[in-house]
Specification:
Radius of gyration: 14 Å
EC number: 2.7.6.3
Shape: globular
CATH class: Alpha Beta
Number of strands: 8
Strand content: 25-35%
Organism: Crenobacter cavernae
Number of domains: 1
Structural class: alpha+beta
GO biological process, one term: folic acid biosynthetic process
InterPro entries: Hppk, Hppk_sf
CATH architecture: 2-Layer Sandwich
Protein name: 2-amino-4-hydroxy-6-hydroxymethyldihydropteridine pyrophosphokinase
Length: 159
């Protein structure tokens, strides 16, 4: 089993319910075991701004799948939830990103690990720091320090 972290986001069709259901769906799949999930957070959109706020979370899994198999699983889950890819940063019912996979550093057209922009995004780092504050993000530092440096990005923990 390898440790893996996945980011969840949604801003369409009851986003809080979508994120919770996606976490549960992945936790029930063969080869994946949910270790812990963060709280839900509300964040403003990035890139394309004319859309609703997002609900985000991060979850830690033990994975018997390879990083590429887990990525395939994430894409299949997005599709199952009705994700339609229209344009970059478009509104979406579900967005799943493989952030970090134990023992894997990869930079291919299909998958880059650790995720190349995670250290710049409060909507990833704040929930990640909640469940794995000590996690080292390459040469950028640990999750807790990075999350603290991104506090000005406007992220709100939901009750």
């Amino acid at each position: 089993m390898s440790r893996a972290f996945v980011a969840f986001g949604s801003n369409l069709e009851a986003p809080e319910a979508q994120v919770k259901a996606a976490i549960s769906t992945l936790a029930e799949l063969p080869g994946l075991a949910l270790v812990k999930a963060s709280s839900l957070y509300r964040t403003a959109p990035v890139g394309y701004l004319d859309q609703p706020d997002f609900i985000n979370a991060v979850a830690e899994f033990d994975s018997a799948l390879s990083a590429d198999e887990l990525l395939d699983t994430l894409h299949a889950t997005e599709e199952k939830f009705g994700r339609v890819r229209t344009f970059r940063n478009a509104p979406r019912v579900l967005d799943l990103d493989l952030l970090w996979f134990e023992g894997v550093t990869q930079d291919s057209e299909r998958l880059t690990l650790p995720h190349p922009r995670m250290h710049e995004r409060a909507f990833v780092m704040v929930p990640l720091a909640q469940i794995a504050p000590e996690l080292a993000i390459g040469a950028h530092g640990d999750a807790a320090t990075l999350a603290a440096s991104l506090a000005g990005q406007g992220i709100e923990k939901l009750g």
